[in-house]
Predict the 3D structure of the following.
Amino acid sequence: MPRNAAGLEIKSTDELRVMRRAGLVVARALREMAAAALPGTTTADLDTVAREVLASENATSSFLNYDVGFGIPPYPAVVCISVNDEIVHGIPGARVLADGDIVSIDFGAIVDGFHGDAALTVAVGDVAPEALTLSDVTRLSLAAGLARVRPDVSVGDISAAVQSYIRAAPARYGIVAEYTGHGIGTRMHMNPDVPNLGRPGRGQKLPVGAAVAVEPMVTLGNPGTDVLDDGWTVVTRDGKVACHWEHTVAVTPGGCWVLTAEDGGEAILTAAGGRYAPLGD
Ligand code: MF3
Ligand code: CO
């Protein structure tokens, strides 16, 4: 797989079309899990839904058995489910979703060797209005970041757009700095990191054929994090609610293509002033 001088993996048009197939599997699984996230559902039930989608699409999991080393056990599920004060990397299990929970669902799939990775946040039943607003701000900060993506955008342009959107909101939120978005392609996590705080013009430039996952994690309180004893679950240190939204986006000659959005990003890019430029399937 070719890399540019900065070490970024550069995908051909045909390779981006394969990544689009992975992205559509991710979109379908997230849609089905979001619909299943009702009071009384366990987080393990959502993992089962996702495994069924993978099987029916002949895709494999980006997450299952993911190994970060350091004596942390390999990741045991195909999805991350993070409830309330959990920010990311929550492990599905016996936990029963209850009215009032706000739940982020993060999923990755591999098709023909290429990864797609995306996340969304759903409300279970009646959720506190400030948590719903937090989810909207997080989702729209992702849209603001994606709207910057075009040939030779710098990583800092994306980061700064995410940060400024959150900082322009009427309430003061925490922007998680210890976890970031990332390059993606033949591996889930690749160069470069894509932080959710940054300055325009800084960092690497993304040429046509680059692909990144942009994933703001925003909290109702302070941005500090802790990791639970399971080695994975990242929580807010102050116990306040967090939200997480993510898409995989590719740089195309006319702008970008949101590979994990069912419509390729047309709606969010149009609304946020971005350049929707799919390559066609
Ligand atoms: N989607 C997460 C990310 O972008 C990855 C989940 S961690 C895993 O960082 F171990 F489950 F893969
Ligand atoms: Co990711």
